[in-house]
Amino acid sequence: MGRKGSSTDVKFPSDAGTGGGCCAPPSGKSVSCCGGGSASTGEIRYEDGFIDGKVDTPAGPVPHVHSRIVVRDLLGRWKVRWGIGRDRYRVAPGLYALGAPDGNAPVLVTANYKLTFDVVRRDTAGLDAWILALDTRGINVWCAAGEGTFGTEEVIRRVTLARLSEIVSHRRLILPQLGAPGVAAHEVRKGCGFSVVYGPVRSRDIRPFLHGGMKASPEMRRVVFPVLDRLVLTPIEITNLLRPAGWSAVALFLLAGTGPGIFSLEAAWQRGSAAVAVLAGGILAGAVVTPVLLPWIPVRAFSVKGGLAGGVVAACAVMWRRGVMDAPTALALLLAMAAVSSFVAMNFTGATPFTSPSGVEKEMRRALPVQAGLTVLAGLLWVGGAFFR
Amino acid sequence: MNGFRYMDGVATVRLADAACIGCGMCEEVCPHGVFAVAERKARILDRDACMECGACAMNCPTKAISVTPGVGCAAAILNGWLTGSEPSCGCGG
Predict the structure, then answer these.
(1) Burial class of residue A207, CB neighbours in 10 A (0-12, 13-18, 19+)
(2) Which is deepest, A12, A138, A388, B41, by most CB within 10 Å?
(3) Does position A190 have pLDDT exceeding 60, yes or no?
């Protein structure tokens, strides 16, 4: 269920320019979360459909990129949202030219996750700028900053490798604000002579940021998590749950066939599919309904949000099937769906841009025993129902 | 971030007043407006809004800020408990 790697989960998807995703991360030290895509080496096929030429610079030719987003880009984005090939969706690290940049043009630093890179080149259409893609191993800025791959050393390394000081006359880099957990601005200056200016959180604010004399308004500095941004993160939540959900389904079918007497295939099928439907309902409640309704469910703990959402979905199911279901089964359904939804919703903490590790840990210490207890109780009611009917 | 607040009273972020030179980097990098700088000193305005990303401590030139940064992700913490290691999403590679 771990946030699958490399990953790229993008927290602020509509503006992945900076967006991060996975589990909120730490400074510098190598906590792997979203992560650890493998190093960008020769075996990786970099995406390059957006390169439309070269520009000559004192440090040699630099690839030129355009700002158009074509079908291929949209398809690629859709695939990684579902977790397909996320670790391999990369652009080659290094310097790119956008528009007609000269020695005074700003240098925008970003990650080499193609999804991120696309958003940056789209949002900077019409600007003349240099884009420096760090080797974040195909991971978005936020997650990579947490891992340290979007970090002080990599910034210094890329600036040096690109011979940036020969290409621009100023000594200034613009970094996405969400890269700050991995980069110490004062160390970068010491390391390569370039000073770091933290730009806005979202790449769509780069243009007003530049036009406003590199001043970010307080709004540009805050993360937000609107409903669309939450919605695009739900497919990956479900994809990540497929494997554990599959094993749980197998266990449920086996358990369903167990009753007085011998194992019954018919019971396994009937009761088993009902139980798997409950599991699926719980997952949907926790991985889709809860994220979408997140700020409107009036409690703070994600487990409680999920439990409430699961409880409501379960109550609807009970109402719908009333008359067909006996009381213990109905109660089991209610408890199980709430427990599954609660657990799944708790995992969404990793995709949000406001949950602290201290908070998540505190929540888990309280929620896990309750979730386990509810599940056991639901199981007893359900299996017991087969014996005492 | 109304409706987007998390647990109160848990964030580990601390500011050593004496070491602060009021440079304003913490205020600049914090995505949740935890800090405010006035009269050449930073102060913590809203500790409970902190998500412990560590950007402030990382960019504080005098190391006046401390925070235990980590992974605010249930799957990662569970993984850490199960394997007895640092929290990791097990997203491996």
Answers:
(1) middle
(2) A138
(3) yes
Amino acid identity at A345: A
CATH code of the domain in which A134 resides: 3.40.50.11600
Which of B12, B14, B67, B73 is the best mutation test for A, with the most CBs of A within 10 A? B73
Q: Which residues contact A384 (CB under 8 A, 6 or more apart)?
A: A328
Q: Whats the size of chain A, residue-wise?
A: 389
- When divided into structural domains, chain B yields a total of 1
Residues of chain B numbered 12-41 and touching chain A (CB < 8 Å): 12, 25, 28-33
Instruction: Give the pLDDT of residue B2.
Output: 64
User: Does residue A232 share a domain with residue A190?
Assistant: no
pLDDT for position A17 = 34
* Chain A nearest CA to B16, separation (Å): 18
In the prediction, which pLDDT does A267 show?
78
Instruction: Measure the CA–CA gap between A9 and A23, rounded to whole angstroms.
Output: 9
Number of other residues whose CB lies within 10 A of the CB of residue B82: 9
| Cα–Cα distance for residue pair A236/A84, rounded to 1 Å | 9
Structure tokens at A327: 């009381």
B-chain residues near A216 (CB < 8 A): 28
Question: Quick one: which of A76, A124, A74, A117 has its CA closest to A100?
Answer: A124
Residue A57, classed as helix, strand or coil, is: strand
Separation CA A256–CA A264 (nearest Å): 8
Domain identity same for A77 and A167: yes
How many whole angstroms separate alpha carbon A336 and alpha carbon A274?
12
pLDDT band (50, 70, 90) for residue A41:
low
**Pick from B65, B3, B77: which is nearest to A359 by CA?**
B77
Q: Is A96 helix (H, G, I), strand (E, B) or coil?
A: strand
Residue A312 maps to a domain: yes
Residue A255 in tokens: 């358990």
- CA–CA separation, A375 vs A357, rounded Å? 25
CB A317 within 8 A of CB A332: no
Residue A134 tokens read as: 């760090």
